Fold Lipoprotein.
Amino acid sequence: MGSGPHFEALRARDARPWETMVVMRTRLTITKTTTALATSALLVLGLAACGGSGDDASTDSETTPAEETSTSAEEETTPSEEPAEEESGDTEASGDFCTAYDALLDAQTTLSSIDTSDPAAAVTQFETFTASLEAAEAPAEISTDWDNVTGVFRQLTDTLETAVDDPANADISSITSLMTDETFQTSAQNVAVYGTQNC
């Protein structure tokens, strides 16, 4: 009793709802973990930005006395108006970078409010956010660090997308390693300090 092809088919049918629940639970867990990792990474940026702001303020206070000797320097540079075009180009690049940098700081609030019970919607938000970072052209002096930061968020977003499509093949451990890696931490801090001082 309780054997035969018909019985096996019934068992397989009854098992599917449980398998579906396990897959859904895995997706939710990965979405929560990924969102938490992203928020933690952005916290590093936020803290570094606060530190950078302080450094910038101290720099201003140190250079204030030098204003007394700036008159002669201004007289020498006033006739030369040619560098203005070059500065304009730098300003455009900085503006593009600063817009993305502001989005990066705002994302700490945006990503932390993601509804992790809806993995598909979370993927959409992560993709939009990551694409905006990748579209920005960072100034040469910070481009390597910027690429490191955006590269990690790209891998995080791709991992989350994989988790929604195929939870069994989502490699969260690799993302955890990337975000806790010293290279990422250093790049995030450098980006934050640069953004605070130049945006």
Remarks:
- Helices lie at 5-63, 70-77, 84-112, 119-135, 143-165, 172-180, 182-198.
- The two ends are 76 Å apart (CA to CA).
